[in-house]
Recover the amino acids of this structure.
């Protein structure tokens, strides 16, 4: 793999930039691999990268039914943070955040990680108590968290409505300065390029249609490009986790729902951090191109259609406009949706399954982008050693029957109440 | 957005309804533990047709069973919930 550097750019200045090579190959599938990964999103590609890099396992295929990054990886609002209250979650997401901090160097690919601060607004005394509690829980884990007064929030985000008749009064907030955003496509491309250069086959336009099970063990997959045998099969299919797991006869603690996002025309810098709120159903950030990126709640009813539902979008926009009235002048350019794998406690599902040879990384709900390097690293470790890594052990598939859910919001076993 | 034919009120906008859970997740109170775990914590979650319990929350308030396609969003039928439809 040719290294990207200032020098290679300079060299290109003398040859009309004609020396650039494709960033990854387009191989035909081989008859058999040690590990077959289903899903070429960030998680599947990161898992392949770390299998090769950390464990020397390179006879690996990543099978993607469309093009890489075309699922939730390329549709998400790219918030990266580790501000969780429950220890298993903050420990995992902090592990991931530390990988983000050096990911561009590790991959020799600019993932444009931008730690601009992840701010959560508090609108009432109750909100502020919950934020203080969460901040304390983070601080105990050695994670940065700063509780903010109303005046401090005003300095950080002057465009918010601080007037006396504000629809959602702002009492204060909590910020994790190390949180921020990254460029979603670059994450898929950077991991793909690195995995490919280490020998991993990335096979696009290759849909897994069934699993080949022999004496209770998965030994391969049938695909739109023929049968592929596998020593192990790893599902990294996000919203399609349940659909793919059903091919091996499994029923998961997951329900697929659409989640939407939208972006306005580009404007000069006006939103400095990622603005979330403790009570509302909207969050806002500004992309590097200047567009104001909005997100809201999931649509809260099952769907595999990658298109959203006007009611949820309207709610997010109404609340966003109430928080930052100046946004009312902007035109919305695009809206889109992804199919998210909503789990029953809001936490991911990583590890083994009751079917031999079949492993899963899913249940990421609306928050798995920030997990991409962390879960790739730990899932690869889990596959290489055939046991869950201790950081992801709390997220095993059997935790519900054991009565050990990891329920950050404390809302009970309902995928549609997250 | 769906246009849901409420058995009591006729065609109404989806904004008036709330999705509750799938029909197969309703179990008797004396269900065996593995039956209860499967119903409470797992879903068939098909990329296709399933039967779901919805409520006309911001309308007449009644519960109903809806059979619909989760890709095309087409509704096949809606039935009021009662002894004949769900225990
Ligand atoms: C609108 C929106 C906003 C979001 N915002 C955030 C955010 O701000 N921060 C955050 O951390 N997370 C966010 N998320 C969640 C995040 O995007 C996902 O959790 C994460 O990207 C999942 O990555 P993945 O690689 O598992 O899934 P994906 O990128 O969806 O990859 C799965 C891949 O599997 C492929 N596939 C499926 N079935 C098959 C098959 N049968 N055969 C072959 N391939 C198959 C799909 O085509 C897809 O490319 C958001 C999600 C959405 C939809
Ligand atoms: Zn009605």
């Amino acid at each position: 793999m040719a290294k990207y550097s200032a020098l290679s750019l300079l060299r290109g200045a003398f040859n009309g930039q004609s020396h650039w090579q494709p960033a990854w190959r387009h191989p035909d599938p081989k008859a058999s691999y040690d590990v077959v990964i289903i899903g070429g999103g960030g998680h599947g590609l990161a898992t392949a990268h770390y299998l090769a890099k950390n464990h020397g396992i390179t006879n690996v295929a990543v099978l993607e039914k469309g093009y890489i990054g075309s699922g939730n990886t390329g549709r998400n609002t790219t918030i990266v943070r580790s501000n969780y209250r429950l220890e298993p979650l903050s420990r995992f997401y902090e592990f991931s955040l530390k990988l983000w901090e050096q990911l561009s160097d590790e991959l020799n690919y600019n993932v444009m990680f931008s730690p601009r601060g992840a701010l959560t607004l508090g609108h009432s005394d109750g909100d502020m108590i919950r934020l203080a509690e969460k901040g304390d829980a983070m601080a105990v884990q050695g994670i940065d968290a700063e509780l903010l007064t109303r005046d401090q929030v005003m300095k950080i985000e002057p465009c918010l409505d601080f007037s006396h008749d504000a629809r959602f009064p702002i009492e204060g907030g909590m910020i994790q300065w190390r949180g921020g955003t990254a460029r979603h496509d670059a994450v898929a491309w950077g991991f793909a390029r690195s995995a490919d250069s280490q020998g991993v086959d990335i096979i696009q336009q290759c849909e897994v249609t069934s699993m080949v099970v022999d004496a209770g063990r998965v030994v391969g997959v049938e695909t739109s490009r023929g049968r592929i045998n596998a020593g192990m099969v790893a599902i990294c299919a996000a919203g399609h986790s349940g659909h793919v797991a059903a091919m091996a006869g499994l029923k998961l603690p997951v329900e697929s729902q659409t989640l939407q996002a939208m972006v306005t025309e580009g404007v000069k810098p006006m939103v400095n951090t990622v603005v979330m709120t403790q009570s509302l159903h909207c969050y806002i950030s500004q992309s590097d191109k200047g567009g104001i990126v909005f997100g809201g709640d999931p649509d809260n009813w099952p769907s595999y259609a990658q298109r959203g539902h006007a009611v949820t979008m309207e709610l997010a926009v109404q609340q966003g406009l109430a928080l930052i009235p100046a946004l009312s002048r902007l035109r919305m350019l695009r809206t889109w949706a992804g199919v998210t794998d909503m789990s029953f406690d809001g936490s991911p599902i990583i590890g083994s399954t009751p079917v031999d040879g079949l492993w899963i990384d899913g249940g990421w709900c609306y928050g798995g982008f920030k997990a991409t390097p962390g879960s790739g690293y730990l899932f690869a470790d889990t596959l290489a050693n055939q046991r869950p890594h201790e950081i992801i052990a709390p997220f095993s598939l059997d935790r519900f029957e054991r009565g050990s859910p990891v329920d950050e919001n404390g809302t009970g076993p309902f995928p549609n109440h997250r | 957005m769906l246009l849901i034919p409420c058995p009591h009120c006729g065609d109404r906008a989806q904004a008036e309804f709330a999705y509750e859970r799938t029909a197969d997740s309703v179990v008797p109170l004396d269900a065996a533990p593995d039956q209860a775990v499967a119903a409470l914590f797992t879903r068939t979650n098909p990329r296709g047709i399933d039967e779901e319990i919805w409520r006309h929350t911001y309308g007449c308030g009644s519960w109903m069973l809806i059979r619909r396609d989760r890709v095309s969003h087409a509704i096949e039928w809606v039935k009021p919930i009662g002894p004949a439809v769900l225990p």
